[in-house]
Amino acid sequence: ISNKNELSNLIHSIKKEPLISLDLETTSLNAIEAEVVGVSITFDNDSGYYIPVKYPKESQQNYNLNIEEVVNELFFTLEDEKIPLCGQNLKYDLLVLKKYGVNLGSIYSDTLIAESLISPSYNSYKLDVLAQNYLGYQMQPIESLIGSGPNQITMDKVNVEKISFYACEDSDIAFQVCNKQIEKIRNEGLERIFSDIEVPLIPVLVEIENNGVFIDSSHLKKVSLQVEKKIKLLQEEIFKVSDCEFNINSPKQLAEILFDKIGLKTIKKRSTAVEVLEFLKSSHEVPSLVLDFRHLSKIKSTYLDSIPKHIDSRTKRVHTSLNQFIVSSGRLSSTNPNFQNIPIKTDLGKEIRKAFVPEKSDWLIMSADYSQIELRILAHFSNEPELVRSFKEGLDVHAITASSVFQIPEKWVTEEQRRTAKVVNYGIIYGAGPYRMSQELGIGIKDAKKIIERYFDKYQIIKEYIDNTIAVAAKTGEVTTLFGRKRKLYNINSKNVNLQKADKRIAINMPIQGTAAELIKIAMINIHNQIKESNLKSRMILQVHDELLFEVPSNEVDLMSKMVVDEMETAVPFKVPIKVDCGHGKNWLEAH
Question: CB of 317 within 8 A of CB of 269?
Fold first, then answer.
């Protein structure tokens, strides 16, 4: 498409089509930084249209469209006419278009998301892999256009004729794969999870990622310097106790110190992994010091030093990617940077949360967090009368469990016993056996076994539910969530006991964790729609497991608190009440 007249004819054709496939060629893999080089459109097999907007000088006499014209003519038409879209990883394309003022919401399908539901155990959902699997077709590699290594060029430097085939191939293959996937989604009973949750979530994630989070980088720098001093002191202490200097980060050198010089018991072929050091720390102080050294070093490199590097020069905010296709239970994952694994209970984790602040002085950070959500979902699935009653009456579930496992009246339960019961309550959901429970609680395997037995004496229906879930999984080879997400269990009947046990743990946990993920996703969609419909200034800025984070003007805090809690608690009807803790403050730590 080389001029306005051809573009108008294409738009006229698009308006008659029931589905179009869209793909952008851009200057960067980072959607926040990327500029549009061209757009490809397909609405019929084995064909496509390419609209170039950035190209080399030698192509300028043949093409005279710019991005503003394409936005005004094409994208605003797609927005207004609500023409259904499909494509591969549309979240990226929609995020790039956001900076041009385009908000495309009529998504019919995304081949990446669809495949992650159809084949949740695949290693790759790239379009060239899908082309091979569905069409037996080999796509043109991008390296044939832009090269590789230090001589790699950007897409806007590629000849238009060359890029046209590559771009149209992308939109065409996505179009063909999409039509084949939709049939599979229907046949495998995945329509509800796909059409009601995963697809409507895409524009919500686009909004969250585009909003980004504002970070107090000076605070992180100050904490990083403090941690650096602690790491140096730990290093000195390790050298002193070991009576020599060595590279603590070298597994080989550390093994020599632990097993040869100090003479500790060799475990797992001289491994220096975390679980080995945990086991050895009662025998000598070096393993314990090394664990502290590693923990601080990881926090420093992963968060304190890394987060400020991700601050975008244009927006002055950090735009993490929230991914729908990485975790097989359906939980969202966060990359570049990863905000999901910031420690919650440690002092350092709290210091990191202090750095998440509102950009404007009269705004606040608001946090809304599901309370004991996995236990509530377990109560719903198992219909265990005692657990259901506890949640309906607002009782202390952990104290009740402690009373049973320690065989004492509830009023005598200590804080330590309650903490133990909490580990047991959640350990059961994760399929923990006596060995894992003994590791978690720091007790003997016999004692752990006794605690689990007493737990199931108290909650017999949960035992029946778990046994039944495993039996059905062994028969069908899969487990499903409330909304129909599936997870294949290839080793549940394996003769290898370890593989079989691992799949049994997944069978117990995945339906619960996956349903929790579905609940928060539905809430996110509803909250996103409410913010738009009510023309609120508040922004959803992050999702971390069972928690949503918002940046809110002071005068919207009361309205937002009520609306968000209401949407989160009523998103899905369960047999037990769902509870959300909501707070606000000058930073994430104060809000949570």
Answer: no
